[in-house]
Design a protein that fits this description.
alpha/beta; TIM Barrel; three-stranded parallel β-sheet; three-stranded antiparallel β-sheet
Amino acid sequence: MGWALRHYAWNASGGRTTEWYAGKRDALNFDAEQYYEILREGNLMESLITSHWGVMGEADPRHRVKLVVDEWGTWYTPGTEPFPEALLGQQSTVRNAVLAGLTLDTFNRHADKVEMANVAQLVNCLQSPLLAHEDKFCVTPTYHVFAMFTGHRGGQPLRTLFSAPAIGYTRNGRPAKLPGLAGSAPLTARRVTLR
């Protein structure tokens, strides 16, 4: 049994708008502000999990019901579909990979709360690890991040603290910051994996 939570990192406007279409930007052509804004949006998953968990505890103090993050990832403006029939398809960059790592670390740190989490779609869609069309197939940067995290499967999450200077960037003409480092660590068969 689970309570659904869904979050997409889509607003790269630097706080200039909260309107769904106006806030989105291109998947491939972006500046530094848009790069960091997508990561800032993705980092909201942390507070979404903790705030939902708190509210859920009011009705279920023993937390028998866990969170199911049924969709997460990036969502950019149309225009980079791998082929016309991939209606919500978008190309993937290292920015998507960084967001995937950030999000998977968040899920690992909250393994006591998140029972299941699903990237938006597997093939030819938002934040897809795989792209396929007819006889063509390739993996995306997100795929490689998922491969890096296989060492977390079946592990016992360990409390970890990471510290690094914050990343500074300009958001709508003003200074803004993001955490400089995040991570997670499981213990699996007497082996600790740090990501």
